[in-house]
Each structure stands twice: as structure tokens, then as C-alpha cells.
Amino acid sequence: MKVSVSSDWSAVHRGLCAAVLACVLAGCGSNEPLADLPPPMMPVQDVAAPRTNDEFKAGDRLELMVEEDSTFNGNYEVRPEGYVLIPKLGRVPVVGLTRVGAEKRVKEYLERSQLKQATVFVERSALPGAVVGSTPQSQLRMMLFLTGKVNRPGQHFVPVPNGHKLGLYEAVLVTGGTAKFADESKVQVMRLDASGMRRPSVVNMKRIREGTDPDVPVGEGDIINIPEKGFGF
């Protein structure tokens, strides 16, 4: 009886290739997203010189009133990058400024491009649930890198309250969200292991957005890559 070893090995080889491909597409072998990566690292406590309680920081709200033009009036969130976004005026940096300093900064911007003279009043308030006047010790800032089909690629410092685990989908949202043609089903998270090598894992963020899967925690220094959808012709 003659046995065809060559044909048998070809069949086995094809099976192995199919299994490896399935593993890659599924996120490399685990039903638990990011289970094949080291635990996420938490950001290091910021020990910089404390600000006074009157200084603006990311997460605060700036209440603005302009006497000469009420269309500028409103409540504006201080973004993680340190600015407030005011219609017709654009980005105005306010982090680290006192209330009086913020008034002067907004007045300067208004008189530079919008008004001949501006009388500006500013008040500071925290977001709901935040403590007004809290110091940097009450909130950490997690460094993340976003690339691919996102609206704001690059390095981001995301405020993370103590005890809160920042999720992948949450992190993408607060840093600007996904861009057109983003493939949310194959989001790649890259994380440093103990040897200093970056290890990748694939997460189906679409299922998180739809409420099918729970959000998965990201960590300090993670790289989040969102690929473009493939189009067949």
C-alpha cells in the first residue's frame, strides 16, 4: 500500500496556515480582549508643584460673559490639551491661569480679532462630580498614542480620576473619536511588556460601542491603532 506523504503534509500545512490566519484575525487566540497582553500600567502620580485652588485645569468649566457681544457668552470645557474652544475665537489656552488671568487672556484674543474693546468676566466651575479647587493629586493624566483612522492622531494626556479604569472606547472618544472609514472591528492595542518590547492585540471596538462587549482598560503608554476598512472590488 502506497501512502502519499506529500499530499498529507500539504493538507496539514494548509490547515495550519488557516488556523494561524484565523488567530490573527480574531485577536490572537483569546476570548478575553487584551488577555494576551501584560496588565495595563497606571499613570504615575503627578508630583509637580501644586497649583493654587483658583487656577484652571483640564476638566474645569469656564463660564464666560462678554459685555459688548453676548454671542460669546457660555460655559466652555477646558480640554485635556489646556484650552477652551470658543466660537468665532478658536482655541484659547487657559490651563494654569487664575480667573483674572483667564479674563485677560480672553480679552486679548477678542480685541486681537473680534472686538475693538472687550469687557470680559470669567468664572470657574468644575464638571459635575468633580471637586472645585482640587489639586493635581486628585486626578492622574494617562499618556496614550493614537494613530490610524482617528480625528486627532498623536500623543494625548487624558485625565483619569483616581480609582477609574480608562476603557479603550472611552479613550478614543475623549481624544477626538474615529475618522471616516475607520475599521472599529480590528482596533490594535500595542503595550510594552517587561522586556521593553511592544506586544499587539486586536480588539473588536465595534462590539464595545454597540454594548455587546464590555470596554477593556487601556494603560499608560499604550498605542492605539485604528485601521482603515478594506474595500473589495
Q: Give the class-level CATH name of the domain at 140-233.
A: Alpha Beta
- So what's the overall shape? elongated
Which regions have little confidence, pLDDT < 50, spanning 5+ residues? Answer: 1-7, 15-30, 47-52, 128-137
In what order do the strands lie side by side in the largest sheet? 7-6-10-8-9
Q: Tell me the fraction of residues in β-strands, as a range.
A: 25-35%
SSE blueprint:
Layout (H helix, E strand, L loop, with lengths): L4 H21 L34 E7 L7 E4 L5 E4 L3 E4 L5 H15 L6 E7 L12 E10 L5 E8 L6 H7 L12 E6 L5 E6 L1 H5 L13 E4 L7
Parallel strand pairs: 6-10
Antiparallel strand pairs: 1-2, 1-5, 3-4, 6-7, 8-9, 8-10
Which characteristics define this entry?
wza like fold, 4 helices, 10 strands, five-stranded mixed beta sheet, elongated, alpha+beta, Outer membrane lipoprotein wza fold like, three-stranded antiparallel beta sheet, 233 residues, disordered N terminus
